[in-house]
Amino acid sequence: MQQPNKGLTLVSTEVQANQYAEHRLKQSDEIFRLLVDSVKDYAIFLLDTDGKVATWNQGAERIKGYSADEIIGQHFSRFYPKEARESRWPERELEFATKEGRFVDEGLRVRKDGSSFWAYVVITALRDQTGVLRGFSKVTRDLTERRMLEERTRQLNRELRGRVTELLESQRLVELRTLELQKLSGELLRVQDEERRRMARTLHDELGQELVALKLELDSATSSELKGNRNLIHATELASSALQKVRNMSYLLHPPLLDESGLLPALHWYFEGLQSRGQLRITFEYRPILFPRLQREIETAIFRVIQESLTNIYRHAETQDARIELIQEPDSVTVRVRDFGKGIPDLKFGTGIAPGVGISGMKERVKQLNGELRISRAEPGTLVHATIPTLDQV
Ligand SMILES: Nc1ncnc2c1ncn2[C@@H]1O[C@H](COP(=O)(O)OP(=O)(O)O)[C@@H](O)[C@H]1O
Ligand SMILES: [Mg+2]
Predict the structure, then answer these.
(1) Is the distance from the beta carbon of residue 356 to the nearest atom of ligand 1 less than 6 Å?
(2) Is the CB of 377 under 6 A from ligand 1?
(3) pLDDT tens track for 185-203
(4) Do residues 281 and 289 touch, judged by C-beta distance below 8 A?
(5) CATH architecture of 39-142
(6) By CB distance 3.0 to 4.6 Å, which of 50, 60, 75, 97 could disulfide with 43?
């Protein structure tokens, strides 16, 4: 059998391998060129050692506006604004890249049509294996859009800060107005209480005294020569009833006992009146048994809360049964008025719908004294719960 010529085979394999490597090199060179050329978002090009444009890609054409024919061979300083050119800034960039190997910058650049854009630029010095400078690569990215976005973000932030400041300012104003309103409504409540006291006194002391005098006159007439006169008897009855009404009105406007003897006697008097007229059946519990006197405003507020709650029960709850608890705690006083009626409609609380004057009046009164008043459904019925601090009042 003939042996194959090994030496020849070796040589031809080597030649083939070299050719193949060369082919691959060419191919990858071409692919690389294609890659660079097809990049559209970056201008990627080469400068010769003098700064003249040597290659151009699609990205460069897109960003700067020149075609390859127009720009190859031109000095790259034409991409810079006039002032930069005059101060020889482009040349300084190349010097810097030559010295340091690389130069990175952000700044204004000029397009072919004279418009400018914000560019991110990297210049890299290209040296061969022996270290000789062969030119520069330049990669430029158009940051105009990013700059605009940044500027827009900054502007929005500025606007936002402005709005927040305005908001804080109006919030402050609202707080101020709320304080003023609170002061005003506190003042109104005080004036109202004072006015009720005054009217109660006038009714009792003036109208009441005159009615007493009238009744005495009528009584003495009835017991003397006009005895048995039916008109007179009727007039006496009318005078009695008018006197009773005036007294009741006066006491309801402002129970004199409230100022003189305190909350408990005033409440007892008030409940007796309601029960004797058959309006409500009231269970009243209080602690401690020796209930102390409280500050005048607090006593008035509690009396008014109970009065308004009972009036509401009488008018709206469709029940006759009410339970009242009054508890003096170490640093607060709590009052609970509960009925067992149909319950307050859902709409009236918790939904932001303003309740009637009665409920809001109670709330305002209690709030004026730094307390809190809540109204809830009690299943069955309604519970009015108010707590007023007593420590900081004295
Ligand atoms: N105890 C209650 N039971 C049922 N409904 C009540 C009770 N208290 C109040 N309400 C309801 O809440 C509303 C608001 O009460 P209020 O503020 O005192 O105003 P007013 O009594 O003048 O209607 C009443 O109209 C009534 O519908
Ligand atoms: Mg009411």
Answers:
(1) yes
(2) no
(3) 888 888 988 898 899 889 9
(4) no
(5) 2-Layer Sandwich (3.30)
(6) 60
